UniProtKB/TrEMBL annotation:
<dbReference type="InterPro" id="IPR014710">
    <property type="entry name" value="RmlC-like_jellyroll"/>
</dbReference>
<dbReference type="Pfam" id="PF07883">
    <property type="entry name" value="Cupin_2"/>
</dbReference>
<protein>
    <submittedName>
        <fullName>Cupin domain-containing protein</fullName>
    </submittedName>
</protein>
<dbReference type="InterPro" id="IPR011051">
    <property type="entry name" value="RmlC_Cupin_sf"/>
</dbReference>
<feature type="region of interest" description="Disordered">
    <location>
        <begin position="1"/>
        <end position="47"/>
    </location>
</feature>
<feature type="domain" description="Cupin type-2">
    <location>
        <begin position="85"/>
        <end position="139"/>
    </location>
</feature>
<dbReference type="InterPro" id="IPR013096">
    <property type="entry name" value="Cupin_2"/>
</dbReference>
Length: 156
């Protein structure tokens, strides 16, 4: 009796059936998944898509974030950034900057990262950073709220 040959999955494909990590789990297609109530019995918010171009037209002004949702317990905001933001760091989560229009430089204490439209940067928790723009940049930002990081500036 011969031993079956185990091959690696194709790039981007699913793991083979014999993969031990899959033992005892049932795959549920994304279309079939439905949000469930949290531990307090609060129903989840309705699933709604966000049109970024439309949402950015409704911003009240520069440097005023507009909440568009939550991701892993962190708020997701749209913001029209101008000038230099305050130095901040987040003890409870990472900060994500996704530039949709313009140019943004995220300064860290040891280096700077320049972002153009279509690029994103994830700043790990605890890393001090600030946003800098020479002109206006439209940015999608996700970072812990300032009450979660007591004593810290609100995002970004």
């Amino acid at each position: 009796m011969s031993t079956p040959t185990r091959t690696s999955p194709p790039i981007g494909g699913r793991p083979p059936r014999w993969d031990s990590r899959r033992r005892g789990t049932v795959a549920v297609p994304a279309e079939a998944r439905t949000p469930t109530a949290d531990d307090a019995g609060t129903p989840p918010p309705p699933l709604e898509k966000v049109n970024l171009a439309h949402a950015f037209t409704h911003l009240s002004g520069p440097d005023t974030p507009r909440p568009v949702g939550m991701l892993h317990g962190q708020p997701v905001h749209l913001v029209r950034l101008t000038g230099n933001g305050p130095w901040c760091q987040h003890a409870t989560g990472d900060a994500l900057f996704f530039v949709t229009r313009g140019h943004l430089r995220v300064e860290l204490r040891e280096r700077s990262v320049d972002l153009e439209a279509g690029e994103l940067l994830i700043v790990p928790r605890g890393v001090e950073h600030r946003s800098v723009t020479a002109s206006e940049a439209l940015v999608l930002v996700s970072a812990p709220t300032h009450h979660e990081d007591a004593g810290q500036s609100p995002p970004p």
